[in-house]
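=== Per-residue structure ===
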Amino acid sequence: MSVRGIRGATTVSKNDRESILSRTRELLLALKETNNFKNKDVVSIFFSMTADLTAAFPAEAARQLGWNKVPLFGMQECDIEGSLEKCIRILIQINSHQSQEEMQFCYLHEASKLRKDLFDMKEKENKK
């Protein structure tokens, strides 16, 4: 079994506690469902938010989902001019027998703009 990384991101429309927590929960559940892992498989989770989000810690959403023994780490995203605003990013590390190539990333709402290459690849696969 190896440690694998799974990336995801989402956006919120406003800087308020419930928006941050609900969108983070949505993303965490999407990553879990898409990659079919269990809570016990999670090694750690890193969260970052853009500087315009200050109303809540996204890691609280993981605690609300019962991930109470998982190490969580929050940080501020680099403030780069022209970057996507009101964005929450996640890196989950899990124990898995699957290869890194089998890990499925999730980019929800406006965050889908961050990885157009992934969505273009899915469209090509679906057309086959």
The radius of gyration is 15 Å. The longest helix spans residues 17-35.
